[in-house]
């Protein structure tokens, strides 16, 4: 009998989490944070930029890259990638390209998709754990049979397109896909240790120490850097959040769920952004993307900043059960940081120690740079990776000397 552990391989939001954003989702504005004499220039800068109100989209965008199927097709074709998935006969081609998997084998492995094999549920559909005939254990993502077949099909093909061209230790591995009549199945790596959000909630029975949290943050930063810089063409994930981070038995992070992923703007043609409808998850969504519909890789940077604050505080991005001033976690964290009370935001499950305090201060400083309201003020993911690497090194050295 498979484990009852829940995962977040499914696209969109799972039960109990914030639902996917639409363009009608309320926009959060940040009030200026209080400052003290101890505030340095960086703190004053962070405080200042959060005063700014977001403006509506410009009437004329600067070399926007159109969000259309034609654009995706031409970009894919120019790089020799599998652009044929967007053709009219994609279902037939899909079946022919995945001879390794058959519907009968998957149906047998899941006992006709029995609820006892279910390990996750999301906007995309249901996820099952299955042991195939060759002995390998995989996760099967079964798309919903919804009324919105066109949208559902687009997200399914988007995830296939993305997963088929990426290979990284910190990304969930792709094995194949299958279309059988009205069934759409995606076969990916099974990651056995639940989601990052599960562990922050202590649902798995173990408290993540600071060293592990720094390792997880570094793994995620490397994975996103790979998507932004080392895939061809570059990719924007668009749904970085704690429930989309799966953990291995050794607590290494793997980024999952590429249903919302998009091609990055074609810099060679001079494009500065992708003009597209807003997709993402409440609390993680880049405010500039929300108001301008202009997507760039800095939107992932913003989401990563939210995730860093979540990782350090243990809180969800939106905590509706708390009093008004603490409901938006990043706003609460910024106020504490700029008032000189940084230590109070540390997850109460973590010990207050010189090493933990140092890591908290340094990572929060970088997180708030990622959360700048305008993309031009945010660092790249490569820069975030480099900074995190240095913070982790300093943390380990301080931890070693204090023993």
Automatic annotation (TrEMBL):
Binding sites annotated in the UniProt record for ATP: 145
Enzyme class: transferase
Database matches in SMART domains: S_TKc
Domain Protein kinase: 113-369
Quaternary organization: Interacts with calmodulin (CaM) in a Ca(2+)-dependent manner.
UniProt KW keywords: ATP-binding, Kinase, Nucleotide-binding, Serine/threonine-protein kinase, Transferase
Pfam families membership: Pkinase (PF00069)
Gene Ontology MF term list: ATP binding; protein serine/threonine kinase activity
InterPro entries hit by this protein: Kinase-like_dom_sf, Prot_kinase_dom, Protein_kinase_ATP_BS, Ser/Thr_kinase_AS
Entry's EC annotation: 2.7.11.1
Listed Polar residues bias regions: 86-95
Catalytic activity: L-threonyl-[protein] + ATP = O-phospho-L-threonyl-[protein] + ADP + H(+); L-seryl-[protein] + ATP = O-phospho-L-seryl-[protein] + ADP + H(+)
CDD domains: STKc_IRAK
Region Disordered, annotated ranges: 1-26, 62-95
Organism: Microthlaspi erraticum
Protein name, UniProt field: non-specific serine/threonine protein kinase
PANTHER family, per the entry: LEAF RUST 10 DISEASE-RESISTANCE LOCUS RECEPTOR-LIKE PROTEIN KINASE-LIKE 1.4, PROTEIN KINASE DOMAIN-CONTAINING PROTEIN
Family from the record: Belongs to the protein kinase superfamily.
Low complexity bias (residue ranges): 15-26
């Amino acid at each position: 009998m498979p484990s009852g552990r829940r995962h977040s391989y499914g696209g969109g939001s799972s039960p109990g989490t914030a639902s996917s954003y639409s363009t009608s989702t309320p926009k959060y504005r940040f009030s200026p944070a209080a400052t003290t004499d101890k505030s340095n220039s960086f703190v004053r800068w962070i405080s200042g930029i959060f005063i700014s109100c977001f403006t509506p989209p410009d009437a004329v965008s600067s070399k926007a890259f159109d969000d259309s199927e034609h654009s995706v097709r031409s970009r894919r074709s120019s790089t020799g990638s599998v652009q044929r998935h967007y053709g009219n006969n994609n279902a037939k081609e899909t079946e022919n390209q995945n001879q390794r998997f058959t519907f009968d084998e998957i149906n047998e492995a899941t006992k006709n998709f029995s609820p006892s094999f279910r390990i996750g549920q999301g906007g995309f559909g249901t996820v099952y754990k299955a042991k195939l005939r060759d002995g390998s254990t995989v996760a099967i993502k079964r798309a919903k049979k919804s009324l919105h077949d066109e949208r559902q099909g687009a997200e399914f093909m988007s995830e296939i397109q993305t997963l088929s061209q990426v290979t990284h230790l910190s990304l969930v591995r792709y094995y194949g896909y299958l279309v059988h009549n009205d069934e759409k199945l995606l076969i990916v790596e099974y990651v056995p240790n639940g989601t990052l959000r599960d562990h922050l909630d202590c649902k798995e029975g173990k408290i993540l120490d600071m060293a592990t949290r720094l390792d997880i943050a570094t793994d995620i930063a490397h994975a996103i850097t790979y998507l932004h810089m080392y895939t061809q063409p570059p990719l924007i994930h668009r749904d970085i959040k704690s429930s989309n981070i799966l953990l291995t038995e050794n607590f290494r992070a793997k980024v999952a769920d590429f249903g919302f992923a998009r091609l990055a703007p074609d810099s060679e043609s001079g494009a500065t952004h992708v003009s597209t409808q807003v997709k993402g998850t409440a609390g993680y969504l880049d405010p500039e993307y929300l108001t301008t519909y202009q997507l760039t890789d800095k939107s992932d940077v913003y989401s990563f900043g939210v995730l860093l604050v979540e990782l350090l505080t243990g809180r969800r991005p939106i905590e509706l059960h708390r009093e008004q001033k603490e409901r938006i976690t990043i706003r609460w964290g910024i106020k504490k940081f700029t008032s000189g009370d940084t230590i109070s935001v540390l997850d109460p499950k973590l010990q207050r120690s010189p090493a933990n305090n140092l890591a908290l201060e340094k990572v929060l400083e970088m997180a708030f740079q990622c959360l700048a309201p305008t993309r031009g003020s945010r660092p790249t993911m490569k820069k975030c990776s480099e900074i995190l690497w240095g913070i982790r090194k300093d943390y380990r050295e301080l931890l070693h000397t204090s023993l």
